[in-house]
Amino acid sequence: xxxxxxxxxxxxxxxxxxxxxxxxxxxxxxxxxxxxxxxxxxxxxxxxxxxxxxxxxxxxxxxxxxxxxxxxxxxxxxxxxxxxxxxxxxxxxxxxxxxxxxxxxxxxxxxxxxxxxxxxxxxxxxxxxxxxxxxxxxxxxxxxxxxxxxxxxxxxxxxxxxxxxxxxxxxxxxxxxxxxxxxxxxxxxxxxxxxxxxxxxxxxxxxxxxxxxxxxx
Length: 217
Ligand code: AMP
What we know:
Helix content: 25-40%
Number of helices: 8
Strand order of the largest sheet: 2-3-1-4-11-5
CATH topology of the largest domain: D-Maltodextrin-Binding Protein, domain 2
CATH class of the largest domain: Alpha Beta
Radius of gyration: 19 Å
Oligomer: single chain
Shape: elongated
Largest sheet: 6 strands, mixed
CATH superfamily of the largest domain: Periplasmic binding protein-like II
Number of strands: 11
Bound molecules: adenosine monophosphate
């Protein structure tokens, strides 16, 4: 549980998730004191004295929340599938940062072959996807710029997130197979859910109402 007994700490990542989470937090009356794009602070205060925000790498959000260093967080389903759900609940699909996890490659890329080489950040999701098809693949773990891998001959295919498809297209690649739809989820530390139940439940239900009203517009 968070060391701050009566405080709520929310873990977010910079960029798309932060931008798209802001209106949902505003709907429950939470406004950060600083903009993480310009501030170098790692902990941002808010207009609510009992709520602060930690702004961290997207892949670290489930770790902070799972260990109770933050009570609540926002993380992509892609990140959660890689991290696992130890120590945390995933009670709400925020329907933000939506995209698709896809297999991609050159337009003429073969999906058959003895042992296809797949470059990806998403090794668990990729392994599961190809195992479900009964395909033996070699997974090559990368931390970024997956699109480069087929171009330089590091892999036959990639597994990556696709939104508009422009990044693939700009690199001469195209989507080949849809693995799953991805969006960001609200996650809650299990112990904090018990210990700070009323406060977190109110936050959850307020955000849920904001998500529903936004999607009914
Ligand atoms: P796009 O060119 O619009 O298809 O976007 C693809 C690039 O943005 C790839 O590098 C993806 O890894 C990244 N991307 C797209 N959607 C998301 C998302 N929801 N969360 C994180 N990264 C994303």
